[in-house]
């Protein structure tokens, strides 16, 4: 298992370097001068002399590859520059906005697992029953309803009409409820149907029929044999959903005025805050690749054949 993990870690290095370079290149190919954007955000008239001075100060007059490797060298020292808007260090400012997003994503992710696993299992065990039909209805609703519309509906009914939860911002646990429901609603019932389909497929396998013929109790057959193998595609989808949830927080944070990295990143794009954009993309990439690594490790643990194939791929 250790060799499997080391190989996956080594494969992440070129991904991170490639992503950082492509992001750096695309940012500098976007129409507009970063020096002019810096002056505009600093409320300084963008005269030719001022632009030339800022280009020299920011190193923008150097070749693109020199700029990239200068940025990369500073990045290894956790120096990602300063924000054009606030003038604060990008690393500290981004981490400050990342923590509320991680909190919201983590709570939504846990809620998705807690709800979708038992609902998916019961839907598979009691196929085509009343419970299965209800979960299917909610899956259709979740798949067809935009998250911003669901957020507005929740605010209207539970905040304005009933006064149970606050309308937005961040503070107490009550502030987490409506954003969490909005963020995890779609994923919960999508994963419910995925787990149900995967379990029904495993129930048809010969080894399940053999286990039942041996007289094993149904709860043992479902829990020990069916659910373990049915969880593989479910875990893959969960791992991928973390990235989608982080991206989806842009809408949710806007609806509920949640002070997270989604709103911060959109604001940086609108203001052409290049250092913030560069580091935010790199940070989200790191989160993506390490989540995928974690999914691979869990996959290999549940199904040792995957680990064995990885270890003997070059034999």
What is the radius of gyration computed over CA atoms, rounded to a whole number of angstroms? 24 Å
CATH architecture of the domain at 97-271: Orthogonal Bundle
Q: Would you tell me the overall average pLDDT?
A: 79
CA-to-CA gap between the ends?
17 Å
The low-confidence parts are none
How much of the sequence is in beta strands?
under 5%
**Major β-sheet profile:** none
CATH topology call of the domain at 97-271:
MetI-like fold
CATH superfamily membership of the domain at 97-271, which one? Answer: MetI-like
Helix content: over 70%
- Number of E-type strands: 0
What is the H/E string?
A: HHHHHHHHHHHHH
> What's the tally of helices?
13
How would you sum up the global shape? flat
Query: What class do helices, strands and sheet pairing give?
Result: mainly alpha
The CATH class assignment of the domain at 97-271 is Mainly Alpha
Index terms:
315 residues, mainly alpha, MetI-like fold, 13 helices, transport, transmembrane, Opp2B, MetI-like_sf, nickel transport
Walk me through the structure.
The protein is an all-alpha fold and 315 residues long. Among the domains are: 34-77, no CATH class; 97-271, MetI-like (MetI-like fold). Helices cover 79% and strands 0% of the residues. It contains 13 helices and no strands. The protein has helices at 2-29, 34-41, 48-58, 64-75, 90-125, 130-144, 147-161, 174-203, 206-213, 218-255, 261-271, 274-302, 304-311.
